Amino acid sequence: MDFKKLFRLAYEYSLFLKGADGLFELFSGMFLLFFPLSSILGLLNAVFSHELVEDPKDLLANALIHTFSSMPQGVDYFWAAFLILHGIIKLGLVAGLLERKVWVYPLAVWILIAFLIYQIYLVVLIYSVFYILLTIIDFIVISFIIWDYKKLVKGKI
Description:
Largest sheet: none
Low-confidence stretches: none
Oligomer: single chain
Mean pLDDT: 86
């Protein structure tokens, strides 16, 4: 497999991940409409308390509890709306990119850059490995989109 095909495959896989992330955010936001953050945090503590006694460094348990406990309480509807909107935007961008709609490419780059800036803010504010990884992935996806856009405009696709 040559480099261009491998790069194309990686690009399409990154779009799949963005779409899956958008779906996850959409469903998470809908979930938050019905269950407040305090209930979710209480459930996570109840589910993982035994695990954390056995292994206080459990990666999954600590990541989930840290993520939900770092979110400001009492703004559940804000987070729900934020996640739903974020998910819908990502799904729309992914659909447009997969259909190779030329006007979607610059829009996707600018929107993802805005998301990237917000994620960098969260990294500084919260310092979460999850946000660091998400930021790196988004940077790679933006690079892929720019690469694909240049090829599309030149008519090489």
